Amino acid sequence: MVNQWGTKKVLVVAVDRMARSDFLNGRCPKYRFVGSFHWLTSNNEIFEKVLNGYYDNPPTQELTPEEQRQLEQERYRQQQDARRAEVRRIDEEERLRRERERDERAKHCVSYEEYQRMKKNGLLETG
Questions:
Q1: What's the pTM?
Q2: Residue 6 domain boundaries
């Protein structure tokens, strides 16, 4: 392999690319493949692919400052929306709780007219 490519430096470059590759080190969630030195040197085609960057990690996308600012603003808006939705949910729960309590109290309350009728009919104990 080294004789075909000319120098040991080429082999070192290929091994270095293998070491930095997530795919060839089993760090890809879908594939748990781990490339070995034997695998690298077993086939000229594999060696060429590694050397030419076929298994390199995809480049990370760098955002411009404007894109970064917009992304942060959008995240902030989403957080604020989520907080407002949570406050609305809590307020609605509280409103329903108060309504249930009011209805429960209303079961035990009578109007003034009903009270007078009950008093007149002797349904109330007066003390």
A1: 0.44
A2: 2-51
